[in-house]
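Sequence decides. Our protein:
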Amino acid sequence: MNPTASTTRIAMVTPGAGGMICGSCLSDNALAAAMLRQGVDAQLVPLYTPIRTDQDDVSVRHVFLGGINVYLHQLLPWLRFVPGFLESWLDNPALLRWVTRMKMETNPAHLGPLTVSMLQGERGNQRKELRALCRWLGESHPVDVVCLSNMLISGCAPALKRETGARIFATLQGDDIFLPYLPEKHRRRSLELIGENAAVLDGFISHSVYYADFMAEYLGLPRHRIHVAPLGIDLKDFADKDFADKDFADAFPTVRDVDSPNATTTEDRPVTIGYLARLAPEKGLRLLADAFIRLRRRRPDANLKLHIAGWCGSDLHAYRDSVFQSLRDAGCGDDFQYLGELNRQAKVEFFRSIDLFSVPTTYREPKGLYVLEAMASGVPVVQPNHGAFPEMLRRLPGGVLFDPENADSLADTLEELVTNEARRRELGENGRTATFRDGNIEIMAQRVFDVFQNA
């Protein structure tokens, strides 16, 4: 780490996702933890709700712009003039966690006015809450750098710039998934406001060249101000004695004395395809189910299994159930298993139990944490040929690509690997070695810190 790391104070501001485990929260938490290990004075500051992560939560205990107050200030104009101390209890993390257990409105079609208000910053209805964040980062916990987790929270950038004097950056991740589904007038206004807010930022971070190019055009950002820092993950839970050598000494702090993943196969052991992501249409679960049905019909005597895991909100239950019913209707009821939401240990064990992994997203994924986790486990991946995946698999050659949104292409690619154990092993070993060398969070933290220092 740069010798000036200990004197550079960094605040990473990330929105909590309610009760959902969100890829951005996982990545931001892991990045902040890595910076702390490397001697950086870094703090992770949650907005809206406490974050959810499957590792130790390193975020500060205070939640700013708490979801209850943000909503009430939008709904009740008179509340904007109530002294802050009378409503600060509504930002209590325990209360916010309790509230997020209930169904919360996250549909962009219903959040247009609130999105615009948040992007207006000091001109919006949440100005009182924003000022509290500025005071905290400007006076109580002064910082040199602020990094916003996405552009949807960029409304706070002008005030933070003025009140803290810090350099302000933003990570580009996921804005394009939310914005298109806003009502048209709110989408247009949101894009205008994002452009205004972007003008005060000192730089942007993308996890792939693909997404940097795309977001430069989509948001009208200067491409030369977007810095690429490839995604990394915390590898310590995926490490074992086979990788405890000097080549990977800096990749993870500790090594578990366990056997290599997927070390043995027998004729009686099924070939298991795994899916671990949110059970949502855009993640491609139905596409994977359709491909699995095709694969079973082609090879009725093969010993094949499909293991599905991931968070499923109440608004996604109907979708989940319809996908599962399609598998049952096709005669695959005994061939698939839903494991639910997994904690960290269960996630590691999940990856150690499967032979192939696929999350065939129908949208152009900008990150793909789950791909890195699979490859770190020695599991070959099968991903659509779009978004960040082609670039990721060129850098970390642990999988193959198929034609996006094409169940036949996915079934063909899965079949090639299901029937070729040697190829699976080759891809698994190559991907794992490359991920430990260049896909670890320690390297990512150094790259991001260099952006903060040099941009």
Q: What stands out?
A: Residues 251-261 have pLDDT under 50 and may be disordered. The first strand starts at residue 9 and ends at 15.
